[in-house]
Design brief:
Strand content: 25-35%
Shape: globular
Low-confidence stretches: none
Largest sheet: 8 strands, antiparallel
Mean pLDDT: 89
Number of helices: 11
Oligomer: single chain
Number of strands: 16
Distance between the termini: 87 Å
Strand order of the largest sheet: 1-2-3-4-5-6-7-8
Structural class: alpha/beta
Length: 418
């Protein structure tokens, strides 16, 4: 037998073996990987009256007012949106006493609430690292946090409604979360909320169902369930004092912008705007396939090999959450975007093409939709940033992204007022 025929035979045998292993992998992955456990979750309890006494703005350093607001764990959190971006825990220990945790490397500070003659909290008092007494007086802030509790059927959802302190009524944006567990303590969402609030627009930042203080379960939910949660949030803010019920919009982030925002907004004439941040304009199955190829390429696989291995890589998350993928995997957002009446803004980070989202495909699909419909949609890609609109190594969303978002939303609500 010639060497050439021997090589051909060995090559065919190797190809056959690889195909067999490939097919076997696709068969075995759903069998060998156990789905994520679904546990009945009870949100933590809290003493809302005691927490609400302390909520507000405090001057913890000369000229530096920081917001003490409701947190997703049933306590409070200090939040700074200035150059020193942080979220620090503020845990209720007993009436008028908290433990403030500035960071992992620092010990917790025992904080007392000081009250005036009317029993309102006027200051916070604690001992610093040098055992010196420190005082943080209440100060005026640009917006106030309000506890937000509302129902979607028998599911109680919780969050924070941030309302500007200037005279109202104010327009309002309802934020929609991305995938996985997600809640109001996420600094990504808080930065978005802060910059929208800077334009005198209120923001509802809920805990996603099954996260934080919200009941329910996100692992088994269909997109229609999240849409119903969003609709419950809209109804809630429209009933709140200081809110202009005729000027309400949606800001969806990642999964929230991909599939929940367009479904929630379809055929609604009462929305002033819809924003999608890093939201893919393809089905979840197509988005996962893209993400799997990029992940394999980042691991060092040549792109042709990554494309071949993609079905195996995609099979793993589907095996972990089979119910979710069965319900949501084939939802195409484009038919819903076509039915959105409100003006739409879609923002992408250019580097997301090499990570989570097929940016160019999404841009092309949205452009084709716009060309064949009356959709009022603006799409913009910011180069140099990825899924979170952050530059490498940075925690903050890039300022031009936040400015574009906030200014566009302001323009839309001003048009609605006219």
């Amino acid at each position: 037998m010639s060497a050439g025929r021997t090589f051909t035979k060995a090559l065919l045998w190797w190809i056959g073996l690889m195909i067999g292993l490939y097919v076997l992998s696709l068969i075995l992955i759903p069998i060998l990987i156990d789905p994520d456990p679904i546990e009945s979750r009870v949100p933590p309890e809290r003493d809302l009256e005691l927490l609400s006494e302390a909520v507000g703005w405090y001057e913890i350093e000369p000229g530096a007012c920081v917001l003490l607001t409701y947190a997703a764990d049933g306590n409070l959190a200090f939040v700074s949106m200035d150059e020193d971006l942080f979220l620090q825990r503020f845990e209720l220990i007993e009436p008028d006493r908290f433990v403030w945790s500035p960071g992992r490397e620092q010990r917790g500070r025992d904080v007392k609430l000081l009250k005036g003659e009317s029993s309102e909290v006027t200051a916070l008092e604690w001992m610093d690292e040098s055992n010196e007494a420190r005082l943080a007086l209440r100060c005026a802030g640009p917006y106030e946090p309000r506890d937000a509790t509302f129902l979607n059927g028998d599911i109680e959802l919780s969050g924070t409604l941030f309302v500007p302190t200037t005279p109202g009524p104010h327009p309002v944006a309802v934020l929609i979360h991305g995938s996985g567990e997600s809640h109001r303590d996420n600094l990504w969402y808080l930065q978005i909320a802060h910059h929208v609030l800077s334009r005198q627009i209120a923001v509802l930042l809920p805990d996603k169902r099954g996260s934080g203080l919200s009941a329910g379960e996100w692992r088994l939910a269909a997109f229609d369930d999240f849409v119903a949660d969003t609709e419950a949030g809209i109804e809630f803010v429209q009933s709140q004092p200081g809110i202009d019920a005729s000027r309400v919009g949606l800001v969806g982030v990642s999964q929230g912008g991909s599939w929940i925002a367009p479904v929630a907004a379809a055929d609604r004439a009462d929305l002033s705007f819809v924003v999608s941040l890093s939201g893919a304009a393809v089905t979840p199955n197509q988005q996962l396939a893209h993400e799997s190829v990029q992940t394999l390429a980042q691991m060092g696989f040549p792109r042709p090999v990554a494309v071949v291995l993609q079905p195996i890589a995609s099979a793993v998350p589907k095996a972990r959450r089979p119910v979710w993928w069965d319900k949501n995997g084939d939802v195409d957002p484009i038919p819903y975007w076509e039915r959105v009446v409100a003006p739409v803004l879609v923002l992408y980070g250019g580097e997301d093409e090499r990570d989570n989202v097929p940016v160019q495909t999404s841009v092309d699909r949205l452009a084709s939709m716009k060309a064949r419909s009356d959709s009022e949609i603006t799409v913009q890609v910011f180069e140099g940033v990825g899924h979170g609109f952050r530059e490498p190594g940075q925690q903050e969303i890039r300022p031009d992204v936040l400015r574009t978002l906030a200014d566009w939303v302001l323009m839309r609500v001003e048009e609605d007022r006219e």
